[in-house]
Specification:
single chain; five-stranded antiparallel sheet; elongated; disordered C terminus
Length: about 240
């Protein structure tokens, strides 16, 4: 029995192999590279926090709210001194230095809370607040804003009116009758606070605290014992509806 062998295909002529070798082959696809994204700006504000013993009666007053008012949590009540809506993270160190400079020689402030009011007006309120006052409070706010202008960091440009926001209106809701308070505390620490917006409301984290180191004018309880505190971020950083 004779086995037939399948003939091998003939090799292409030498000149054809050379032509194929000279034809350029498509380059392999290159991995696309995305440029690094710029860090997101931070929402920050300078403030005096309301201590818990003062916040308690304010929280009791909030129980009178009805309808679509959203009360500010008692542990988040504060007096905003300057609101910074969009701060590059690499400028936080400048803000810390400004806070240290403005509080180094300033004594603690004797803050008082008075009557309630509405913003922008009682006829169409969006924010319910209680007025605040203290000798030197307006001066501190003005110096902060001047220092921020020198740094080239934008604020909300709204005139400073010292207050504690108690609630924000999110829909139809009745007004609360005017209330008067006789509450106060010695504020010995100013804070730089980061505000992170969530659907359930803002989250506040303390970025830095600045002790008012000037000589106090009275012998009220120690500021350390009465100043409130917000959580401090685990990693270094980086008012009405128009403010935090």
């Amino acid at each position: 029995m004779r086995i037939r062998k399948t003939p091998r295909p003939a090799a292409p002529p030498a000149h054809e192999a050379q032509v194929k070798a000279e034809v350029p082959q498509p380059a392999p696809p290159q991995a696309t590279s995305h440029p690094p994204q710029a860090p997101q700006p931070l929402r920050l504000f300078y403030a005096f926090k309301v201590p818990s013993d003062v916040a308690a009666p304010l929280a009791e007053a909030q129980r009178q709210l009805r309808g679509n008012w959203r009360a500010v949590r008692a542990d988040q009540l504060h007096i905003t001194l300057a609101y910074l809506p969009a701060v590059p993270p690499d400028r936080v160190a400048d803000l810390k230095r400004l806070g240290v400079r403005l509080t180094a020689q300033r004594p603690p402030l004797e803050l008082r809370l008075r009557g309630t009011g509405y913003f922008p007006n009682e006829g169409s309120p969006r924010v319910w607040f209680v007025k605040a006052e203290a000798e030197g409070l307006n001066d501190l706010a003005a110096e902060l804003r001047a220092g921020l202008r020198d740094l080239g960091i934008a604020t909300d440009d709204l005139p400073f009116k010292a207050h504690v926001t108690l609630a924000r209106k999110k829909g139809p809701a009745p007004r609360v009758s005017p209330l008067l308070f006789d509450l106060g505390w010695q504020a010995g620490n100013m804070a730089l606070i980061r505000s992170t917006l969530r659907k359930t409301g803002p989250i506040y984290d303390t970025v830095s605290t600045f002790r008012l180191r000037g000589a106090a004018s009275s012998q009220l309880p120690a500021a350390n014992d009465r100043d409130a505190s917000f959580p401090t971020p685990h990693s270094p950083l980086p008012p009405p509806e128009e403010t935090p």
